[in-house]
Amino acid sequence: MIVVVGGGLAGCEAAVALARRGHAVRLVEMRGVKATPAHQTDDLGELVCTNSFKSEDPLNAHGQLKREMRLLGSVLLQAADATKVPAGSALAVDRRLFSRAMSEFVAAEAGIEVVREEVTELPEGPAVVATGPLTSDALSGAIRGALGDEGLAFFDAIAPIVDRESLDESVVFEAGRFEESGDYLNCPMDRDEYEAFIEALRGGASHEGHDWDAVPYFEGCLPVEVMAGRGVDTLRFGPMKPIGLTDPRTGRRPWAVVQLRREDKAGQMWNLVGFQTRLKIGEQRRIFGMIPGLADAEFLRWGSIHRNSYLNFPQRLTDHGALPGRPDLVFAGQLTGVEGYTESAASGLLAALNLDRVVRGLDPVVPPATTMLGGLYRFLRDSTPKHFQPMNSNWGLVDPLNRRVRDKREKRRELAARALEDFLAWLHGAGVDPAVDPASLPSHEAEVRAP
User: Fold this and answer.
1) All structural domains of the chain
2) Fewest C-beta in 10 Å: which of 74, 186, 245, 356?
């Protein structure tokens, strides 16, 4: 029996992958007996931050990671394919349908027993620990005791969601950057509106915590008010950039734009892109109501903040994410220091592959650093422990090409082609059959825009 602790994305991937390799799996999830500050349901694989898995374009680092995950048999991508909503080149889902699909995929595996209870100690036998950023205090204490240090921690914020019917249609317009027309809603601002909004964000009252300001946020998920405090133009050159958009009321590019991305297939719920926040609810109502088109918006979910924690992978874990001296106890997901949904899920797939090998008396394996998953794991194990912080997929993680390529798109094309070839070769060397026909994967030769 193999134990998988945590029913999030990494845990579900690991459990299904192990069951499909013939192992009996006990998947333990505490939600159902103990809630977390961020989850709203007891479903497996629930998404708590955004409903987007980012780009599917293989010339984008996130798209390449998805190709590698499909070759490993990712259940996340199978569930996402079945529940996706329009989002241009990104893969976005109806989050409730998605978590329901993930639960069904797990339930369909006869070798998996799902148990609802809190785990307070590290398992003694073969196990994957994928409890995520909201690991319970008891288990966190057991992990700290085993690793011999306090680890690291940061805090993460969630963006608000508004009701489509409550938006001012005379102001909000449908359009997407990079010719993704109709996939996003846009709230345009002129210069005066933008500067007044930034001033309000800077002066907004936030929830205070005893140690929230003593630990760093991950740069990819900064609260919007923190970004506003960095400079008047930070948001205008970040999530509120107006590039590629034209306000139909003026025929000109706005000074700044707040984009909304759909949360469900019916297009009733829309997420304020990049607007993670720790502002108090009253302040969210006041300040976000200043956004053109949102004056009378109904907020279906307010922004909030919750604790995230991760381990010092380069200092305390082995190359494949195991506890030193316990190659059969493997950590996966955001707890290891990967950042992002697909990155977390991919680590669960690799953890399952390696735990299967360890149980069978084989050495663990990690993909080469020319691949996206291999580059990510190289970052985890080779980072400077003192300055280690979470990382998500990007082409800077992989080995450079052996020649200089000036054209950015052509460079990405060559990196993607090499990554796929090397990943397939690594699978063959590890004795793993591709879960899908490589010819069925999105091609790096396709003429699509690389975001």
Assistant:
1) 2-151+311-432 (3.50.50.60), 157-307 (2.40.30)
2) 245
